[in-house]
Design brief:
2 copies of one chain form a homodimer. By secondary structure, chain A is α/β, with parallel strands linked by helices. Chain A folds into 3 domains: 4-54, lambda repressor-like DNA-binding domains (434 Repressor (Amino-terminal Domain)); 61-156, Response regulator (Rossmann fold), CATH 3.40.50.2300; 160-240, Response regulator (Rossmann fold, 3-Layer(aba) Sandwich), CATH 3.40.50.2300. Chain A is 49% helix and 12% strand. Chain A has 10 helices and 7 strands. In chain A, helix 1 packs across helix 2 (15-22). The N and C termini of chain A lie far apart (66 Å). Chain A binds chain B through residues 44, 46-51, 53-54, 59-61, 68-72, 74-76, 78-79, 82, 86, 89, 91-96, 109-115, 137, and chain B through 44, 46-51, 53-54, 59-61, 68-72, 74-76, 78-79, 82, 86, 89, 91-96, 109-115, 137. Chain A binds a DNA duplex (16 and 16 nucleotides) through helix 2 and helix 4.
Chain lengths: 244, 244
DNA sequence: TTGTAAGCGTTATCAT
DNA sequence: ATGATAACGCTTACAA
C-alpha cells in the first residue's frame, strides 16, 4: 500500500505538497499538481483513513444504531441515512441493538469508540439516564424515534399521542361513535402514548370506551389480523359499508 | 476525551504500561493493572480506534457491500454477518451498491480506503475484471453470491445451474412432463444459470421445452403472481390436484 | 516488570 | 509555492 511518502518521492516533491494537492489546497503549484496526480495514479495511492482521522480528530463515518437491520423498517431508515451520507462522502457504521439493553449499550460504546462524531441512535431498551449520559459525552449524537425532555433538542420523534388523537378525532368527525383500538403489546412509549391519545380523543368527545374496545396484539401483520378477527367475531364491532 | 497519556499520569505509570494492561499483555504488574484500571474508569477513557488502526494497520471493522439495505434479503444477510462480527467485537461498515456499477465501485473504494481489511462484497453490476482487481488489492475481500473462476477461492455462491437442475429433475422424477419456468427478468448470471439448469434437465430427460413454457417477469411477489396467471390463463399449464 | 523512544500516515504550522 | 517538522494517540522493540 503506497503512502504519501511514496507519492512524494515518485513525484519529486515533499509530502507537504502532496498533502496539498490531495486536499485541493489553493496554494499548490500547477506543475506539482500534475506530477503528484500522475504519481498517485501510478502507485494507485489511497489516503489512509486512520491517519487522517487521527490528526483531524474525526472519521468520515456516521454511526447508526438500529434494533434489527433485517427489519425492513430499519432497512429503510438506514437506506435514507445512507443516501444523504453518500452525498457527503461518508459511510455508515452500523450497530444492532437486538431490542436488548445490554446489546444497545455495548453497540453505542463500540460506535463511539470507533471515532464517529455523528451518531444516529434508535434505542428503546436503554433508560433515559443512560442515553442522556451518552448524549452528553457525544455532542453529535441524536436520538431517533424517542423523546427525552432533558435532551429534547437531540430528539427526533413522532408525537404519538397527537397522532393517535388526530386519527381518532378524524373518525369521530366522520360520525363514528364506536371506535376500537388495536395496539402493539410492545411495552414501549409509542404504544402507551398512542393509546393515551386515542382515549383522550374519545373522552374529549364524550364517547364511551369500554375495555372491550381495545386490545393488544403481537406487533406483526398476523397480530393485527388476529386482532381484527377477535373484534369482529366477538361482535364488538361490525363492518359498515361505504365511505368512512 | 482522555488519552492514554492522561491515564498514565493518573495511574502514575508510563503509557507503555497502560498500553499493556489495555491489551492484556502478560507482562503487566498486578499493582499496575489495578491502578491503571481505576484510572481508566475515573477518566472514562476510550482507546482511540484511529490511532490503534494506524499503528496496527487494521481496523476492527468488517465492510459489507450490499445492493440495497432496505431489501429484507440483504437485511438478513447483514444481520447474519453482524452476529458473527459481534462475537469478535467488530463493527460493520455498510455500503450500498444500489444495483449500479458506478455506485458499487465507489462504495468498494470507500470501504477499502476506510481501512477495513475484511470485505464482504455483493456485487452484480461490476464486471469480473474490476472485481478481480479489487480482490487482488484486498486480500481479505470475499465475493458473496457471485462466482468468478479466476478467484474462485474468494467466492461464496450458490450453484444456480445445479439447483435449478435438481428442482426440475425432482419434478420429472415425480412424473411431470410439462414443466414451466418463471424466471426473473434481471439480467444477471443467477437468472441465466438457473434457466440453463432447467433446460438441461429437460433435455437430459428428453422432455420438450417449447418457448411458451418459460417466461420472464419482474422480480417481485407481484411479478411471480402475474407469471402464474399468464401461464394458467394461456392454457399452457393446468392445475393437477393432489401431491406432486 | 517497567520505561524510553521510534514509528504508523496524515495534516498543519512555520520558515523559506 | 514549497519544504521541514511537530503533533495526533497508540503499539512495540529495546533497554534497564
Amino acid at each position: 500500500m503506497a503512502t504519501i511518502k511514496d507519492v512524494a518521492r515518485e513525484a519529486g516533491v515533499s509530502i507537504a505538497t502532496v498533502s496539498r494537492v490531495i486536499n485541493k489546497s489553493p496554494k499548490a503549484g500547477k506543475a506539482s499538481i500534475k506530477s503528484v496526480q500522475t504519481a498517485m495514479k501510478n502507485l494507485s495511492y489511497r489516503p489512509n483513513a486512520s491517519a487522517r482521522a487521527l490528526v483531524s480528530k474525526s472519521t468520515n463515518t456516521i454511526a447508526v444504531l438500529v434494533s434489527d437491520v433485517s427489519d425492513p423498517f430499519f432497512g429503510s431508515l438506514i437506506k435514507s441515512v445512507d443516501q444523504v451520507a453518500r452525498e457527503h462522502n461518508k459511510h455508515l457504521l452500523i450497530g444492532n441493538g437486538y431490542h436488548d439493553a445490554d446489546a444497545e449499550r455495548e453497540s453505542i460504546e463500540l460506535l463511539i469508540n470507533s471515532g464517529s462524531k455523528s451518531l444516529i441512535i434508535h434505542s428503546k431498551a436503554l433508560a433515559d439516564d443512560e442515553l442522556i449520559a451518552f448524549a452528553k459525552e457525544a455532542p453529535g449524537l441524536v436520538l431517533i424515534n424517542r423523546y427525552i425532555p432533558e435532551i429534547s433538542e437531540r430528539c427526533i420523534a413522532f408525537d404519538n399521542f397527537k397522532g393517535a388523537y388526530m386519527a381518532t378525532e378524524f373518525l369521530i368527525n366522520n360520525g363514528h361513535k364506536h371506535i376500537a383500538y388495536i395496539n402493539s403489546n410492545h411495552n414501549i412509549d409509542d404504544a402507551s402514548d398512542r393509546k393515551a391519545g386515542y382515549l383522550k380523543a374519545l373522552q374529549d368527545h364524550q364517547l364511551a370506551h369500554p375495555p372491550s374496545y381495545s386490545l393488544e396484539v403481537e406487533l406483526s401483520d398476523e397480530g393485527g389480523r388476529l386482532g381484527m378477527i377477535e373484534l369482529l367475531s366477538k361482535g364488538v364491532l361490525y363492518y359498515r359499508s361505504g365511505g368512512l
